[in-house]
Design goal:
By secondary structure, the chain is mainly α. It has one domain. 61% of the residues lie in helices and 6% in strands. It has a 3-stranded mixed beta sheet with strand order 1-3-2. The longest helix has 28 residues. It is globular. The N and C termini lie far apart (32 Å).
Length: 175
């Protein structure tokens, strides 16, 4: 019991520190609006906020930004072309996504599914208890999951590529 409380306290402390550092960086760049929309949603669990912050930070790296060139939407356009048509960066698009816990009252699907969205939708549904479990085992997988869903929100379908292929490519570029 004590270790569980300690783990939660540590995760919350790490999140607060990362949030403070990233907010200062965002403010220096004039991106306060992104941070208000990104972390201002009270329904987000600390683990999901951590994952979004991690994904946002990863997208600062040009190598990570290559994920938008690696994949195409159903019309054959790269996801970077989709971002360009929206006059957005990967970070700005991520800040405009909406995250909700659960699947309309149904249990979270499958043991591997952390989150899901429909291609082209900015709404992502996540499984909070799976994020809470994963933050202790593999925190980097949470940022990968958020970026994976961002690719779908830009129009990427699956099969092909498989979910595993998408996550593997994101992890390679953004880890």
């Amino acid at each position: 019991m004590k270790q569980n409380r300690w783990s939660k306290s540590l995760a919350a402390g790490v999140e607060a520190l990362v949030l403070l550092m990233l907010c200062e960086t965002a403010a220096a760049r004039g991106e306060e609006d992104i941070w208000l929309s990104l972390v201002g949603t009270p329904a987000l669990t600390p683990e999901v906020r951590f994952a979004i912050l991690r994904a946002h930070k990863a997208l600062e790296d040009p190598r990570c930004q290559q994920i938008f060139l690696d994949f195409q939407d159903s019309s054959g356009r790269t996801l970077q072309e989709r971002l360009d048509s929206l006059s957005e960066t990967g970070q700005r698009h991520l800040a405009g996504m909406l995250f909700y816990e659960g699947w309309n009252g149904r249990p979270c699907p499958g043991p591997q599914t952390l989150a899901m969205t429909i291609p082209g939708s900015r709404v992502v549904y996540f499984c909070g208890r799976k994020f809470a479990s994963m933050i202790r085992r593999d925190p980097s997988a949470l940022g990968v999951a958020i970026l994976h869903e961002e690719l779908h929100s830009l129009g990427l379908g699956e099969n092909p590529p498989t979910s595993e292929e998408i996550s593997r490519r994101v992890a390679q570029r953004c880890h």
